Amino acid sequence: MSPLAPRDAVDPPACSVLDVPGPRWFRPGDPIWRVHGDAATPLGVTTALLMLLANPAFAAIVEDSGATENPWAVDDYLHDLVEITTFGTVDDAMVTIEHAHRDRSSFTGTTEHGDFYYGSDPSLLAWSQAATAWSLLAAFQRFAARPLTSAESDQYVRQWAGIAHLQGARSFPDSVRELERLLRSSRGRVRATAVGRRAARKLREHARACPGVTENSVTAHRSCTTVVDAAASLVPSDVRRALDLPHRPMDRSAVFGRISKAHEGLNLPRLTTRAPIAAPSAMRVRPA
Fold first, then answer.
1. CA–CA separation, 40 vs 144, rounded Å?
2. What secondary structure does DSSP assign to 215-270, as a single string?
C-alpha cells in the first residue's frame, strides 16, 4: 500500500528524505517538524490508524485494499504520508499526495451498515485529516519530553491544515479547540464494525514484543506491542468501545521505559526511500 519502495527491498536505498535537496514546506523549528520528528510519532500514527478503523467507511477501505489481516501495512502507509509531506521536498510531497489521492479515489462501496461511501469524499477526508492530526498531537503532548505550548499547538494545527487542503479537505480547523470541536461533532462517524475490530485485533497480534528488538530498527520500533498499547490508551472512549480495545492508561515512563532500546537513536526522521521519488517540476505550491 505504501507509495514508496518496500523497506525490506533487496537493494535498500541509502538516502533519507532529509538528504534530498530542494525546497520544503517546513523548517526544523516549526511545531509540525518537532511533532513528526519525535520518537512519539509511531505512537501517534498507530493512534490515527485506530481512529480510522473505528470509521465504517475507512474500515471498508481497509478491507477492500486487502489489509485487514495485516493492518501494519496501512500503518506504514500513514507513516510515509506524514513523514514525506513534513520532511520531504515540495516535489516529493506533492507526488506522494497525488498518489494518495489516486489510491483513495479508487475505493467506493457500502459499509457494513449499508451506507454508501467514496474515498475522495471531502467531508470524509476532512474528518480523517482531523483525526490524524489530533492523534499525532495527542501522542506528542502525552509522551514527548517537551510538549508544545498552547500557541505552538494551534500553529501545528494550522500547518497541518495546508496539507489537509491539498489532500482534498475543503475546510479544516485552525486551532486545537476547533479541531476537538470538529471531532466531537462528528461522533456519528465512529461505529463498530466486524472489519474494524478484526483489523484492530490483528494489529496487536502481529505486533512484535518490544524487549530484544534489533537496536535502531525502524520497523521493530514502529510495530512494537507497546506502541499498540500506548495508542489504545490515547483514543477516545467511543473509539475504544467500537474496536473493543482494552484500556490501559500509560505515561511517558511506562512507554519509554519498556521500549527504550527500540527508541534509542530514533528521535530524528529515519525514513529511507529511493530518491528522488518525484521528477523536478514546477510544483512549488505552499499549503495555505
1. 6
2. TT-HHHHHTBHHHHHHHHHHS-HHHHHHHT-------HHHHHHHSHHHHTT-SS--
Distance of alpha carbon 128 from its chain centroid, rounded?
Answer: 10
Comparing C-alpha atoms, which of 107, 109, 87, 81 is closest to residue 166?
Answer: 81
User: pTM of the predicted model, to two decimals?
Assistant: 0.83
Residues in CB range of 9: below 8 A, 6 or more apart: none
Handedness of CA 227, 230, 236, 237 (dihedral sign): positive
Work out the number of other CB atoms within 10 angstroms of the CB of residue 19. Answer: 9
Is the pLDDT confidence value at 48 over 70?
A: yes
* Dihedral angle over CA of 164, 168, 170, 172, nearest 10: -20
Residue 5 DSSP label = -
C-alpha cell belonging to residue 209:
514484543
pLDDT digits (tens, 9 = 90+) for 185-234: 877 789 999 999 999 999 888 876 655 444 333 344 556 677 888 888 89
Q: How far is CA 245 from CA 41, 88, 198, 236, in A?
A: 21, 34, 11, 11
